[in-house]
Amino acid sequence: MTIQRVKAALTLGVAVVGLVVAAGHSETPASSMAGLPRTAPAWKLKDLEGKTVQLADFKGKVVILDFWATWCPPCRAEIPGFVALAKKYGAQGLAVVGVALDQGGEGLVKRFVKEQGVNYPVVLGDDEVVKAFGGIEAIPTTFVLDRSGRIVSHHVGFTDRKEFVKEIKPLLKP
To answer: How many other β-carbons are positioned within 10 Å of the β-carbon of residue 54?
Structure first.
């Protein structure tokens, strides 16, 4: 699926996710993880400075991997929670990584990240990473990975920071 098709699907998905969030449901049930890889696929993407960042850079960390876009209201609503989580739990081994799926390019994402005070790495997503994660059909789509790189949860749509805290706390224990 090309980034253009992803954006079209995501636009529709955002509308659907908005309805789901309005109904008070934000977490994808574990049973819906069928078809997703058990271990997070290896990836290499460019960050906002043009440097290569890869999943292996976060080896031994609990990772929140968030697929998002600047134009997505639920994505924008989640970012302050991710900033707070990175600040509070980073020293304990949490890494938050944003995968931007914007077509507007690096400049647009870079400005947004600066304006929002994002304190975690943001990389520019591509068709390969979208496909590797089973096809991202709505955003935000967020994966929580344990220290071994296994996908332990998958969320589609806005998810409250408290839900992520419940998931990561046991994973952060030494």
So the answer is: 12
Number of domains observed in the structure of the chain:
1
The secondary element (H helix, E strand) that includes residue 153 is strand 151-156
Per-residue tens of pLDDT for the chain, all 174 residues: 445 544 544 544 444 334 333 333 344 444 355 555 689 999 999 999 999 999 999 999 999 999 999 999 999 999 999 999 999 999 999 999 999 999 988 999 999 999 999 999 999 999 999 999 999 999 999 999 999 999 999 999 999 999 999 999 999 998
CATH code, 46? 3.40.30.10
39: which 2 tokens? 């271990």
By residue range, what is the domain housing residue 106? Answer: 3-172
Query: How much is the pTM?
Result: 0.82
